[in-house]
Amino acid sequence: LTVSARDGGGLPSATNAAVTVNILQTASAPAIFERSRYTFSVPENAPEDSLIGTIKAREPPNSLQVVSYRISSGDPHGIFSIDPQFGIIRTKKQLDHETQSVVVLTVQSQLGNSSVYSSTQVNISVIDVNDNPPVFLTKSDKVTISHTQPPGTAVYIAHAEDKDSGLNGAIKYSIASKQSSAFSIDPSLGVVNLSRTMFADKQQEYTLHIEAEDCGSPPLTSLLMLDSLTVKIVILDTNDNSPSFTSSPLSYVMEDVEVGFLVHRIIAKDPDEGRNGQVTYHILSGNENKAFVLDKITGLLTTTQLLDREIQERYSLTVMALDDGSPALSATQVLTILVLDVNDEIPVFLKQLYKTAVHENRDPGEFVVKVEAVDRDAGLNSLLRYEILPGTGYEKFRMNSDSGEVVTTASLDRETQDIFSIKGSPSRSSTAQLYLTVLDENDHNPLFAKTQYQISVREDLEEGSAILDLFASDEDDGLNGEVTYSLIDDTFGAFAIDSVTGSIVTTKALDRETKSQYTFRAVASDSSTHLPRSTTVMTVLIQDVNDNVPKFEQSYYKVSVWEGQSPKRDIIQVLATDLDSGLNGETEYSILSGNEKATFLIDSARGILATTTVLDHEDTSSYREVAPSHCLVLLASDRGTPSLNSTATVLITVLDVDDNPPVFSSPEYHIHVKESIPVGSHITEVSATDCDAGTNAEITYAIISGNDRGHFRLDGKTGSVDLMKTLDYEDTMKFSLIIQAT
């Protein structure tokens, strides 16, 4: 059999069902169900093993066999079970109405082991429980609307879905955050409508949080700010305003103006925003001879050719102001331009150039100058009106059109602009030049480029040398901007500053050994008595120059040493000091002269003078005071470049030890005298020398033999021999005297 299904609307199912009936040849009768269809219902939240219902099949009369039941189809997932003996249907798993709301089971009954069975249909309705909240398909959205939309306009449709059915799936919408009274929502349809017009609203953006709630019991809702729908509504400007002219529809121009002269500025305002409010300007008609050109952006109307009042004295230009909206809106204005006549006698300024000055920082309204022109015409042609022609800085001045007096309209700042060149015109016929100088006020103090300077200079810098040129800037002009420099700390007479140039120079010779560093402050001042002065700290470091020679403590040393002492004995230590620093102040010692035999040596670092051999007084007369030219000359040198040095003389006296006997000048003296020489006569004189010195060299003479009878007398000091008795040749022809020198 082919079975088709149709609903109440007459629509058939997508496919038909094929039913095959097998006819069995048997004499057995089956157990017949009491009903051909059973209908039960169960809530979807029923727990497992919940009772659904009971079915019953009756066995044939006089049958002793037992009836059994089984589910033959309709439960592929095994959600239900049936008691095979009693026909009780129960749940085996959790039900879900949203997955399957109706279950159709086919249950068979069998009598014993017979192959014959009967069937019945069991319809189970899964009753919906409100277990699903409404869910928005999107969490946020954005719409734009025009601010001209009328109340009641639908601006957005919110849509949420609820898997439940019936009232449990019926959704109500509401606006959770009531930020504005401008919007309302249809609770059933979710349509957001305008509640009022948006013209007067300054707010251009609204954020709505829309909540969805079902009609179940209890109702479930989308959670605010988590599952709710956030809708951002942007109010767009609509090009609903046409440009409106604010400039005058009448303008005047002299017939003798130059080409390119500014005749008029056309101004139109459009209150719309963005491109809807951007206005451009166009000449529609009246400019057939192209006498004028209109800048479409600025609205400035200028001449393109010379005008002639006698040919045309009036121009009527139809001007359009057009915004950039879509569609664009426009407005028109008829601009009348009157070309004014130039008289035969033009007005003439008494001076073609006015020069004046005004102080800066004065309040607006400060009188500048009064200009004056005369016109030899009479009547209206001689009545003059003054005005300032457009130019650089002209907006800072105002001219009395009747009197020609010029006053300021703003406070002037000389440091911003110090010269103004202004053109004035009476009746737009004659012009004069006003040359205005803004007089400076002392409103700026001098400023040094740095707050401190550190420089190094050599100590041998010549007096009057410049070491640094300080500069302080002052934005004022003239005397107010003239900076004078001075020093306010003690420089110990070493430095001075040029009050005009700021150049710091030395005023005396520098000496690092006296002072190695100077710290002082320099001041920059102008003529102000109330503005603060600018100061900077100067640190001058004096670099050492090798300008000091090593200086011995004494220029002349005298020292004595005994002869015969062992070599390498220290004799004397000399010291030379050098006031310089570093290598320039390190001293080295050496023997410059007097040491030809290398008898002495000196420690180059410590200045200790010592012997190199045993000294012999008798062999070293060159060291005696009687021979000063043979003294030692010591040299002390520093290690600077170039090296400086000094000398000192050391006189070394070798003290005598009595180690030498007297020696006669001759071992024998032969004297011949007459026997008749008188007593007291000088016979001869002996002489001996002793290499020793001092008392060791003092000699005493004595006759030790040969003068037994006392004929002779010997002077012990001088060695002089005199006759003491009369000689007698016949008695004694020869005397042999032995004389001793000690």
TrEMBL record:
Sequence ranges assigned to domain Cadherin in this UniProt record: 34-136, 137-245, 253-349, 350-448, 449-552, 553-664, 665-742
Keywords: Calcium, Cell adhesion, Disulfide bond, EGF-like domain, Glycoprotein, Membrane, Repeat, Signal, Transmembrane, Transmembrane helix
BP terms from Gene Ontology: homophilic cell adhesion via plasma membrane adhesion molecules
Location(s), subcellular: Membrane
InterPro entries: Cadherin-like_dom, Cadherin-like_sf, Cadherin_CS
Gene Ontology CC terms, in alphabetical order: plasma membrane
Entry-linked Pfam families: Cadherin
Entry GO MF terms: calcium ion binding
Protein name, per record: PCD23 protein
Organism: Caloenas nicobarica (Nicobar pigeon)
Encoding gene, per UniProt annotation: Dchs2
